[in-house]
Write a structure and sequence with these properties.
This protein is an all-alpha fold. It has 13 helices and no strands.
Length: 249
């Protein structure tokens, strides 16, 4: 349970990687700006089910970073894509990140990767090993160490938390409240999943929308309400993701 909570919600990397994705500012070089834009495109493709397009944009981003000898941003790119959808099919992003981190002697990125691997392997977290990590990773290490979901609530309320991260955090809170099963908790679960849906629909993140609707189904099943319409909706959304994949191929 705790493993699922904290490996899935680590969707944002340090602001030094993604702060320039929206505009060319803050002294970011043109080449790094191009890399960041390609990385941002890659994540959006990934969350829409366009896996080939996601890989193409990711490879372009990494190529740009390496051409300017920025192996640490190349490593961050792999971490960013893996944490956006941390499933076994995407572990290659984390392996890339580890390789680039060693080449660039990127100690911070190696520490993040170590934390992710420890969580993925369900190892006991020694908070002293990660005390030098920036946020949000330090909070994740503390949360996993303490087996607490409180950092999720804190992160959602922080103004610097991205919508991508908030979307995942809302789903994690939804799961948490569904598992409690009390009337009050189920009411909170409904609020959380509607918040996630609002974000995902406004950004057209099809995969996230499907994850949201599947959680709504789980909530309805827990509440013992009729799920026929919800199941049909999920089937249609699943078909749309398959269509995107077929076009992508």
């Amino acid at each position: 349970m705790i493993k699922k909570i904290f490996i899935i919600f680590i969707i944002t990397i340090s602001s030094t990687l993604i702060s320039a994705c929206g505009s060319k500012s803050n002294g970011v070089s043109y080449e790094n700006y191009r890399g960041l834009k390609n990385l941002d495109n890659s994540l959006n493709y990934l969350l829409n089910g366009s896996n080939n397009a996601a890989m193409n944009s990711y490879n372009r981003a990494v190529d740009i970073f390496i051409r300017v000898n920025d192996f640490c941003n190349a490593a961050k790119a792999g971490i960013f894509l893996y944490t956006a959808e941390p499933i076994s099919e995407n572990i290659h992003f984390l392996k890339d990140a580890e390789n680039y981190s060693h080449l660039g002697k990127c100690n911070n990125e190696l520490l993040i990767i170590s934390l992710l691997l420890d969580i993925d392997d369900n190892k006991t977290i020694n908070i002293d090993d990660y005390i030098n990590l920036d946020e949000p990773f330090l909070s994740f290490a503390e949360a996993y160490h303490n087996k607490s979901i409180e950092p999720i609530k804190v992160l959602i309320d922080q103004k610097d938390t991205s919508n991508r991260l908030k979307s995942v955090l809302y789903r994690k809170l939804t799961e948490h409240y569904i598992n409690i099963k009390s009337d009050e908790a189920l009411s909170l679960a409904n609020i959380m999943i509607e918040n996630a849906l609002k974000i995902d629909q406004s950004n057209s993140w099809l995969k996230n929308i499907l994850y949201d609707e599947k959680l709504k189904l789980k909530l309805m099943q827990t509440q013992k309400t009729n799920t026929d319409t919800q199941i049909k909706k999920i089937d249609i959304l699943s078909e749309k993701i398959n269509v995107v994949k077929e076009i992508d191929e």
